[in-house]
Write a structure and sequence with these properties.
Helix content is 40%, strand content 21%. It contains 9 helices and 9 strands. It has helices at 5-11, 22-37, 53-59, 89-99, 117-121, 137-150, 168-179, 202-212, 241-262; strands at 44-47, 68-72, 105-109, 126-131, 151-160, 185-190, 193-197, 217-224, 227-232.
C-alpha cells in the first residue's frame, strides 16, 4: 500500500519547528478524511504559520485540486504585538517544498486584522480553518469572525492555545466573540486546541469522534462557556515545548544582531 502524504509527513513531523500535539495532528487528519468521505471539499486555511507544522499536517490531506491558504505577518514582526510565534517565510517555504506540492499553496503576507473575508473566500469556502495568529483578545475575536464568515457548512475551525496559561487573551477573545454574537459552536477540546463548527454540524462531528476515538475520550458533555464539549486526552508523547521556544528565542536574537550589524 502506498504511503499517504500525511503518514509520510507524520514520520518527520519533529523535523519542523513548532508547537503541535501529535494526537491533535492525527485527530485533525481523521476529521479531514471524514469530511472527504462525506463529500465536503475546499481549501484549508491557517492564520499564524510559524514554520508550517500544523499547516502541513492539514494540507497533506487535501486532494490535488484543493488549495491551502497560509496567512502570516512573516517579516513584519513589528506587528506581532504579543510575540506569539515567529513566522519565517524562508523556513516555511522550505518545509512546504519538502512535504507538499508548492503549487497548491497560496501564501498571503498579511495582518489578519486588516484582511477581509473576501480575500480568503475567493479561493473557495474553507473546510478546515486553523487560528494560531495573534493571541490577544481583540485579534482572537477578529480571527474567529473571519473564520465564521469564510468556512463551508460543515467546516471546522481549530482555535489554538485555548487553555494555555500564558495566552489568556485567547480564551478572552473567544468569550468576546461569543458575546458579540458569534455563531461557531465547539464540539471537542483536544490537546491545546478547541474544535468548532456551525451549529447544524456539531452533533455529527461529536458522534463521529466518539465512535472513532473512544480510547482518547476523557470526558463527554463537559460545560464550556455556555456550550457542551467532549474532552480528548493526549495519546502520544510530545517534544517538550521549551525546546521549540528556546530555538525561537535564539533565532530572534540572531536576527536582531544581524539587523544591528547592517546599520
Amino acid at each position: 500500500m502506498n504511503e499517504s502524504a500525511f503518514d509520510h509527513y507524520f514520520k518527520h513531523i519533529d523535523d519542523v519547528e513548532g508547537w503541535l500535539s501529535k494526537t491533535t495532528a492525527i485527530l485533525s487528519n481523521r476529521l479531514m478524511r471524514h469530511q472527504s468521505t462525506g463529500g465536503l471539499v475546499g481549501p484549508i486555511c491557517e492564520i499564524g504559520i510559524h514554520h508550517g507544522k500544523y499547516f502541513i499536517a492539514l494540507a497533506s490531506e487535501l486532494r490535488r485540486d484543493e488549495q491551502a491558504i497560509a496567512i502570516d505577518l512573516f517579516e513584519n514582526q513589528e506587528e506581532n504585538i504579543d510575540h506569539s510565534g515567529m513566522g519565517d517565510r524562508h523556513m516555511f517555504e522550505g518545509n512546504v517544498t519538502k512535504f507538499l506540492n508548492p503549487a497548491c499553496v497560496i501564501t498571503l503576507h498579511a495582518n489578519s486584522t486588516r484582511l477581509s473575508p473576501g480575500a480568503i473566500s475567493k479561493y473557495g469556502k474553507i473546510r478546515f480553518f486553523s487560528i494560531d495568529g495573534g493571541h490577544t483578545e481583540a485579534i482572537t475575536a477578529n480571527d474567529l469572525r473571519l473564520a465564521e464568515r469564510t468556512i463551508a457548512t460543515g467546516g471546522i475551525v481549530a482555535l489554538d492555545d485555548i487553555l494555555h496559561p500564558s495566552w489568556t487573551g485567547v480564551i478572552s477573545g473567544y468569550v468576546r466573540y461569543k458575546r458579540e454574537g458569534g455563531t461557531l459552536r465547539p464540539f471537542a477540546l483536544v490537546p491545546n486546541k478547541l474544535f468548532l463548527t456551525d451549529g447544524s454540524s456539531v452533533a455529527s462531528y461529536r458522534s463521529f469522534m466518539r465512535s472513532e476515538f473512544p480510547h482518547l475520550t476523557d470526558q463527554q458533555d463537559r460545560e464550556f462557556i455556555g456550550d457542551m464539549v467532549d474532552v480528548f486526552r493526549e495519546l502520544l508523547p510530545a517534544r517538550p515545548r521549551w525546546t521549540s521556544r528556546f530555538k525561537t528565542k535564539v533565532r530572534k536574537r540572531v536576527k536582531k544582531i544581524k539587523r544591528l550589524m547592517r546599520h
